[in-house]
Amino acid sequence: MNKPIIGLTMGDAAGIGPEIIVMALLEKRVRDICKPLVIGDTGIIRQALQIINGRATVRKITEIGEARFKKDVMEIIDLDNLDSGLIERGKVNPLAGKAAFEYLQYAVSMALKKDIGAVVTAPLNKEALNKSGYNYPGHTEILAELCGVEQVSMMLVVGNLRVAHVSWHLSLKEACNFLSKEKILTTLKLGLQAVGRMGVEKPRVAVAGLNPHAGESGLLGEEEIIHIIPAVKEARGQGIDVVGPIPPDTLFYRAKKGEFDLIIAMYHDQGHIPLKMLGFFEGVNITLGLPIIRTSVAHGTAFDKVGKGTASPESLIKAVELAVQLTNKIEERRFS
Fold it and tell me: What's the superkingdom here (predicted)?
């Protein structure tokens, strides 16, 4: 099987993205499984290479047809949309926010045209993004709009732990009001599609409760009775191996021991906190429900670490590895 082309978006130029990208591209394990192509700024990438004392040729190209994918050469599709001299590392800059959006936009267009196998994103800064005029709370919402889909979900993966979220970038109050049987079922089915592509043939699913002790039969909240239990019953009726609602304070412990293949979390922090505690540097974010494959690091721009050359590229490497796995799975199905 041919190695897939993976498009890596540089993210916010003032953040940690450029450094972890060049670190990842210097890794043999990345080069061995894919043809990496960066969508970003050539000058910023060269600076990042100097920061980490890395050795490679940085080659500026304008379109994918110019890429040669040679050893020790980092090829950058440079949109010429950023003056690197105006970017101060570790500082919010609307120019960097605007450029980050445009890198993502370009990468998605390539993925939709099947020019690349998947998109892997370095972190963007939400404040810079919004100050540049793009009013989105994060990557997930941008991707849904660019791909023209409404039903999406966010999944975090750390090893064999996989958590799909019913809601993500909402306040806690909004997340509670957002909940419904239909949204839980949609998230569950999107999650099942993803774990199937990861090679899990008969996934065991657990649905988290929203309230302490999963509501304690309505004593601590009725969301379980109104929304979660009906969703679980309907899913079971469709032949899905699912249990819940399970109190979150025990659910993740049980999942870590291997009892479940997929967890459905009700809101952002319910799923993010345990997974980031278990594997902050290995976590991968996947956007479910898109017509393209998109994976990402599970951390932010880390302004406090920029320019030091000490950031870990492990989350980005894991994101590339998972993107390649998902891309290859699709290719296998095409020819099977």
Answer: Bacteria
